[in-house]
Amino acid sequence: MDFIDERALDEITAQATQLVAEYFRTIADRPVRAENHAGKTTAALDLDLPIEGVALERLMDECRSVFDLSRHNGHPRFFGYVASPSTPIGAYADLVASALNANITCWRSGPAGTELEQLVVRWLGSLIEYDANAKGLLTSGGSMANMIALLVASRRKLGADASRKGLWQSGPPLIVYASEEAHMSIAKAADILGLGRDQVHVIACDNRQRMRVDSLRQQIEKDLRDGLRPCCVVASAGTVNTGVVDPLSEIARVAGEFDLWFHVDGAYGAPGVLDQRKKHLFNGLSLADSVSLDPHKWLYVPVDAGCLLFRDPNPVKATFSTDEADYIKVHGHSDDEAFAYWDYGIELSRRFRALKVWLTLSYYGVRRIAGAVSNDISLAAYMGELVTADDDFELLAPVELSICCFRYVRAGKNTDLDKLNEQIMSRVQTSGRAYLSNATVNGHFALRACITNFRTTKSDIELTLETIRDAAREINTDA
Ligand SMILES: Cc1ncc(COP(=O)(O)O)c(C=O)c1O
């Protein structure tokens, strides 16, 4: 049965590309988030599994209503979480990759895709000044990249064979060090890997939310005295809450001294290195044994495209390579042609993610992308200045990269500011005018704006603060 006839191909191409173009043209004019409630999207659809095919026109209309009921991460006033806009070239790259439908398990399975992935990984490595021996792989995102890094770190400490023979839990517990500001995916990875969350020792931060290196050292020394096995230290290059970069060079020194794997979670913040004004913050990044850097965050590539870079591929290969499955053995190929991603990560079937990274970096060029990253950083600083200058607000953390954390403070004497700001955030989110998320900073509920958006301008920042003031006024009137 043939699913493709010429007329259908032309119609689908015309209508789907029109839908995409329409979306890119209208994104800034839409509410950031549609008025919505759980079940509204499916309520408008036929919920029975279609036995017969549905007309294309109807399906395209339903896609339009899916767009209408979505939250638009590419809107110029979307500042929640870490979510950047997609680009037309990135969106079409996903289309091209799906048309080819290559499965990038290894060179034999996807020769072009494998070579492109090796190329873009080298490009991403060069951004953080890794040398040509560095390798890596694209992942579903930062969480997967962080988990692979922790697995490699643990296996290195135990010896690859030890863990294969079921000795994973034998001997003293392995310890991972991460600051109290580290992303939740670190504790989750430890949990999944069987290390347990208790084996992540949380290191205190200084008053700028950066890992305290003296506390790190003290904790490692204590753990050694207690007979534990320090294994890995995870630093952040751009924390998810406030966007600060840990003191990487100093942490690298401690990691070297105690023979720890040094992983840097730069899933969000590593592209900040492209801004010359911020480059100094990343000194020591190239000393890391592994670095997470997500193209789908601050390089404006559509989800999903994470990346784990590693300085030396050998411990990674020692962790993952297997000769247990006969059907994947590669026979009669040179080393390059025997290359397999299953030797470097968890997934076997893998999307052709490299295409959208390659097309995005090639079409815009690093200079333009760096300009957009710098502009995001300037806009976050601008927001910080406005907040500082205005008695309505209090800045809660220094603005280091592109995240601004603050709160609304013009309120009656006995007002619970945490509760008020939580209510403000909810109002702003449902208003459709702007979208902020939250963070806890020094025990306070903070409104958090993360700017990773090439559409945002200064007036969007001003409008967002105005939206917050309006929300606060409405809450006071309601009370
Ligand atoms: C610093 C940091 N690390 C890891 C992650 C997890 O990335 P992902 O959502 O791609 O799994 C995030 C997500 O925002 C992050 O900000």
Write the layout of secondary structure elements.
Elements: H1 6-26, H2 40-43, H3 56-68, H4 88-100, H5 111-127, E1 135-139, H6 142-158, H7 160-164, E2 174-179, H8 184-192, E3 200-203, H9 213-225, E4 229-236, H10 248-257, E5 261-265, E6 290-292, H11 295-298, E7 306-310, H12 313-320, H13 354-389, E8 393-395, E9 403-408, H14 417-431, E10 437-441, E11 444-450, H15 458-478
Parallel strand pairs: 2-3, 2-4, 4-5, 5-6
Antiparallel strand pairs: 1-7, 6-7, 8-9, 9-11, 10-11
The chain binds pyridoxal-5'-phosphate (PLP).
Tell me the total number of β-strands. 11
What's the arrangement of strands in the largest beta sheet? 1-7-6-5-4-2-3
Distance between the termini: 65 Å
Q: What Rg, in angstroms, do the CA atoms define?
A: 24 Å
The helix content is 40-55%
Derived from helix and strand composition plus strand pairing, the structural class reads alpha/beta
**Tally of alpha and pi helices:** 15
What ions, cofactors and ligands are bound?
Answer: pyridoxal-5'-phosphate
* Element pattern in H and E: HHHHHEHHEHEHEHEEHEHHEEHEEH
Beta-strand proportion? 5-15%
Average pLDDT number: 93
Q: List segments where confidence is low: pLDDT < 50 over at least 5 consecutive residues.
A: none
Largest sheet: 7 strands, mixed
What is the overall silhouette? globular
